[in-house]
Amino acid sequence: MIARWKKALAATAACALFAGGLAACGDGTASDGDVENMTLVVWASQEDQANEDSWLQTMEQAFEEEHPEYNITWKNQVVASADAAGVAKQDPTVAADVYTFASDQLGTLLDAGAIGQVSDDTMAQLEEQTEGSETMLDTVKGSDGNVYGVPLAGNTWFMYYRKSKFSDEDIKSLDAMLAKGKVSFPLTNSWYLPAFYIGAGGTLFGEDGTDAESGVQFGGETGAAVTDYLVSLRENPNFVLDANGSGLAGLKDGSVDVVFTGNWDAATVRANLGDDWGVAQLPCFTLNGQQVQMKAFAGSTVYAWNPYSKHPKAADQFAAFLSGTYSQQAHYEMRSVIPSDVIVAATPEVEADAVAQAQIDTIANTSVVQPSLSEMSNFWTPCENFGKAIYNGEVTHDNAAQQTESWMASYESLM
Description:
By secondary structure, the protein is α/β, with parallel strands linked by helices. It folds into 2 domains: 2-155 and 300-368, D-Maltodextrin-Binding Protein, domain 2 (3-Layer(aba) Sandwich); 158-298 and 371-410, Periplasmic binding protein-like II (D-Maltodextrin-Binding Protein, domain 2, 3-Layer(aba) Sandwich), CATH 3.40.190.10. It has 19 helices and 15 strands. Helix 3 links the parallel strand 1 and strand 2.
């Protein structure tokens, strides 16, 4: 597979150098007397720029070949996507021209004025890359409805299980699995717990997660019913709390048959279960006699450009290039990063990748976009505390409704 993108890079180079270097495959054209000199600072993960043959350096070379109108000096720096917003907001004027960030940080970057809106050309590219997969497009939409950045990869969680324990029908129902095996779930983790409330119709900051005034709406009769279900889940002898890696350890020693986590734990799951590992999108659970679909938070790792860049056009183009179809294909082949691009997702290699398909299916069918508003920072701790209260027995069948409303009331002073 590596040979494929190397051949593609060679073809890109040949195209860019066609007619003695005077014509390019992209939009830009240049002559010897019409080259723009620039330095572009790029923030990326350590893994993507570890050596000269790493993905970032390879994509920079490809971008140069596609844009001979630029003479670029690259200044690569290690800033992980999880840290980008925190660093950039300190002083956007000296932040990178192009950087990667986690989509849940979009609100912080917008508040700091540290992120540029995509150009019309980039928007056209993004629409092709997300056709039929609106979730990924929504991860980069600001509260103003505009788009900032291009997703490079999706991020969510799904389900791994011991195949010998469950049928294909069983894995569609959390309750069916609880009847047959040990199910581990991170009930006290506020990234996972909302899946039950959101699945039942609860909302965070409105239907699309961009209305801060709407706050957290997990209460009412339905919310109370979800809490009551979770009390029953905790009481089920086949339920196991997943905390501090205990779920993965349980897969290995046989005390657990189901865990909920993401692609980052795929290798450990395969090692712990051997040939008996399975993976799938999220199941349903039974609420008031009806099947309700669990829904995970979905986000993305994104490349964007800084509006303080001295070379905004090139910065926008390079951010789009780094998250483009060609780059995502190379990223998957070089580092096994599951693509968000629908074209790459449809390639035989990705379609044959069970973990990739579980993530893609979850994002498409059993997820909601994780809100990126800065107010979201106030959501996590009360949610974690409520999960702990359920697990510790402080929330019971008798007080489920009251405790749920108290939880909701705790947000009123925070939002």
